Structure formats: C-alpha cells, structure tokens
C-alpha cells in the first residue's frame, strides 16, 4: 500500500467513525501498523484515535483506554499535533463513563489550556460539552447548561453536524433537568435534521430517548413508550450499550407509571446488568433507585431495601468526588 492509499483509508475510517464504527475500526487497525512502517507518527496517531473512538462507541472501555495509552506513548516520542488533544478529550469521556469524575475533570480542563498546535476547535468544544456533562452528573444543572451554551457558541461556524447535534442533545438534557420541557422538546426537534444529515444513529437514539423522557414527564405514556422503543431498536442495532441501558431505565419508569411492574423490573434488571458491566456508576445508581421503587410497589420490601442500599452507596461514592472547590473554580472560568 502506498502512503496516499493509507491516507485515503484513514479518511474513509474517519468518515465512518460514527455511522459504521466496525468498518472504521477495521480500516484504522490495519492503518496503524502501516503508518508505523512509513514512519508517519501523525498518521499512526490518527489511526489510534479512530480505533479508540470506535471501541468507545461499542462500550469497550478497556480497549479504548489501551489505544489511548498507545497514543500517550506515541505523543511522548513525537509531535502528533491535534491528536494529543483528541486523546486527552476521549480519555476524559471514557473516565466520565466509568464514574472517575476527578480524572475526567482534570483532562477536560487540560484541553482548554492546550496550545492551538495540539488541539483543534472541535475538541475544545467537546471539552466544554464534557464539563457540562460533569456538572450535570453532580446536579449543577444551570452551570451544565452554561457550558453547553458556550460550546454551542464556539461551534457556530463548524460544519461538524455530529458535534452540533451532540451539543443540542446535551442542552436538551439540561433543560429537562431544569423543568423546561417545552424548550427542551423544541431543541430536540431542531437537532433531528442535523443528526440525520450526519447519519449519527447514536445521537438519533439519544434524541428519541430524551423525547420519551419528556413525554413520560408530561404523562403521555403511550407516546413515551413509542419514542423509547425507537431509541432501543437503534441502540441494539448499532450496539450502543450505554445508551441502551439508559433507554431501558426510562422505559422501566414508563412501565411503572402504567402499573406494569413485571415489564419494568425485567427492563431495569437488564439495564443494571449492562450498566454494571460498563462500570457506569451514575447509571447504576439511577437504576437501583427505580428498582427499589418497583420492588416496594409489588410487596418485596427486602429487595427494595437491597436496591435502596446499593443506590445510597453508589451516590455516596459519586458525591465524594464532587470536589466543590474545584467545581466553583471552574464556574469562574465561564464568566
């Protein structure tokens, strides 16, 4: 293979990263060794970055961290340009998924201080998105919204539909948490054309999941169930395990609202198995809380207490990492 063919394959992999992650991973995995053979560290870094993103999309956090470790080693030996920032940002996102919030916070903050030579604008925007998600996990919803609005402003001139769609989805989640359901629904409707133009099935599933949550909160249970089933189908078709578990959580809540506890417990148990396998503590805690309510409703107090205890233990672990001083310092950076 020539150097030009290698670059072509990497560009194809980059194009497929969010729509055909398996194909992207195959192309990038082959390109990694070829780039090394050509002594092209930036192309090797690009291949490793694509491998890391693809495995992250599949929920394979261990593989993602392994590829990022390779990238870190490469960055110590060579100038890899913007891929340094991409690696740090994805490391933060992976640690956030695993509930290691202090590691994600430090890495996203680092992205905001890297020189332009080591990070592109889109990755800086992603760092603001990530910090917003961190605030959301710690129930600082207004500050989360401020970070996501800043990301929206920075990305205004970007042609990256995937990034813009992700920003809007996060803004909608913040608005839902703030009780602004009508505005959140309008944001999601506005994001849908961008996501479909990008062919980002992961983001499309997220939109339907959030629509389902809004409909659930409005008491529109049949509409909520339909939206959530669309999200679930997309997630299972494209192997997005974290989103699948989150969707099952909301679907479980929907069935509880309908008084259908057997289906709710089945969905929540499946969601808990997936969330536990992924190491997603925040998601596990939410599932345990709803399972406690469902078990209490069907007259299983021992099981309800077991889930309530698990919920409280996980919340204690999460809130122990709040680092309020650092969070307040970060808020000052928004001014």
From TrEMBL:
Keywords (A to Z) from UniProt: Cytoplasm, Repeat, TPR repeat
Keyword Ion transport listed: no
Taxonomic superkingdom: Bacteria
SMART domains listed in its UniProt record: TPR (SM00028)
UniProt-annotated location(s): Cytoplasm
Similarity field: Belongs to the Rap family.
Protein's name in the database: Tetratricopeptide repeat protein
Source organism of this protein record: Deefgea chitinilytica
